[in-house]
Amino acid sequence: MFGKTAINGFTLITGYFMVNKNITLKKFLKIYLEVKFYYLLFYLIFLISGYEPFSVKGLVKTVFNICYEAGEQYVGTYVVFFLFIPYLNLLIKAMSKKQYEYLILLLIIYFTVFSTFMLHETFDFLGWMITMYFIGGYIRLYPNRLFEKSKTALYGIIISLVLMVGSVAVIDLTGRIMGLESYFFFHDSHKFLAVTFSVSMFLFFKNIRIHNIRIINIAAASTFGILLIHANSNTMRRFLWCDVFNNISVYNSKYIVLHSVFAVLLVYVVCLVIDRIRITVMEKPLFSKLDKIDFFNKIKIDKE
What we know:
Layout: H1 3-18, H2 25-48, H3 56-63, H4 65-69, H5 74-94, H6 97-117, H7 125-141, H8 145-148, H9 150-173, H10 192-206, H11 214-221, H12 223-230, H13 234-244, H14 256-290
């Protein structure tokens, strides 16, 4: 239930911090090269080890993963979405506050209200990312009392959680009326409860005053890398959750909670270590050399 809300969280954070910034070639390359590195690395590892058989289709999809994932999966869509940011910022700057609010309202009605309450699916991954970006940017540009109250955000989190669990129970007990699945109200990032939970969670943590803590900064810098590793492909999912941890075998076990917590923490820590090695050995040396080239940091994607 929290996977899709995390997607909203990532994009809200992007909107909050990038609405006043330019996209440089350096920023884009950092994301692009990180994505390509992990996709090619694990494809070759699984291929050489014999865990995954070679196929021309698999090779093409790995090399051109962004093209094949755009509009369908998070990573490919995010890379494409990143290139839209300069133009989204230009649009935001050209609008009045009232126009900005009307645009967000229109997008929420189209993507969330139609889909959740009218049972008419309108989801589009890129369009929804843009919607969340607009909301994150609005929170940054137009602060008000509602956005600054941690207690209000906490209420939003609690109410959303109660409604999430309650909606599952109601749908199950009523025999799934109208053919709805148990998790209908939050099964994708644009559904109503996924939106209320993710926005409330974002506002809650935005208002927490945390001093500069090095370990948090280190973990935060590798969050995207951790995603790229553990959710790299269906092959990686099969390797982790079926072969290594064999989750199905503990489904009815009394140790299921302990197993779940241990497996997630172990995967997180191992992926964090892998990404820190990549940053130290590859990313920092590469970009320290590129930083010496004057025009590299001056290239703005939003400039002619």
